């Protein structure tokens, strides 16, 4: 991906705070359920990356709730850095580091990002192509330390099917903007992740018909 796609999404009109923070409604809705999973499955201590941190509101909440982990946001779109940095400043979390530029669809990932204990990716795979998604899974598997965990969250097809009218409509609107993108199948994710070296631990049903995949690198 040579640059961030300019898509019209339901969160494109996100609210802006006076201090520079941007809030996406979907991030507000899913932050609690994702954090519940992290509390149960994340390591107590270690290092973590968030891929495609977007507004920065998710990782600020993760860092506050899981202070034993050092969190680093990453983002491909430089225009989002100001909001991520504003959320970091507002959080006052010493374990939340400045954002790093990263196009996670481009391989190889920088050497200095390797050896982390946890990687989190929320709501991206449906916005990129299959080839780009495969590159991300490869990058994740390479960056994780032995025994490291990967949490992947978002909307997916189930056994090839879109299981709600809302999902069918959203997928169609995405493909109208770019035929290469759209919902990935849950079986495709399992297969491609396994081929990259990620071992599936759990698939969790999440609110709004989303799924969360928990993977581990076995060292």
UniProtKB/TrEMBL annotation:
Region entry Disordered, spans: 1-27
Gene3D superfamilies: Vaccinia Virus protein VP39
InterPro entries according to UniProt: DUF938, SAM-dependent_MTases_sf
Name assigned to this protein: Uncharacterized protein DUF938
């Amino acid at each position: 991906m040579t640059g961030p796609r300019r898509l019209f999404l339901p969160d494109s009109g996100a609210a802006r705070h006076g201090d520079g923070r941007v809030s996406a409604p979907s991030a507000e809705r899913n932050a609690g359920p994702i954090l519940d999973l992290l509390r149960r499955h994340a390591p107590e201590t270690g290092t973590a990356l968030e891929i495609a941190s977007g507004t920065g509101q998710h990782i600020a909440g993760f860092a506050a709730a899981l202070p034993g982990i050092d969190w680093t946001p990453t983002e491909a779109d430089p225009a989002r850095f100001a909001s991520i940095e504003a959320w970091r400043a507002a959080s006052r979390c010493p374990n939340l580091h400045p954002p790093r530029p990263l196009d996670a669809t481009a391989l190889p990932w920088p050497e200095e990002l390797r050896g982390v204990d946890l990687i989190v990716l929320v709501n991206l795979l449906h916005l990129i192509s299959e080839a780009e998604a495969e590159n991300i899974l490869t990058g994740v598997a390479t960056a994780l330390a032995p025994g490291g965990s990967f949490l992947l969250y978002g909307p997916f097809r189930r056994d090839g099917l879109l299981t709600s009218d809302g999902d069918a409509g959203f997928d169609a609107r995405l493909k109208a903007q770019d035929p290469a993108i759209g919902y990935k199948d849950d079986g495709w994710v399992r297969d491609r992740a396994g081929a990259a070296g990620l071992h599936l631990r759990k698939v969790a049903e999440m609110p709004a018909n989303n799924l969360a995949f928990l993977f581990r690198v076995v060292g």
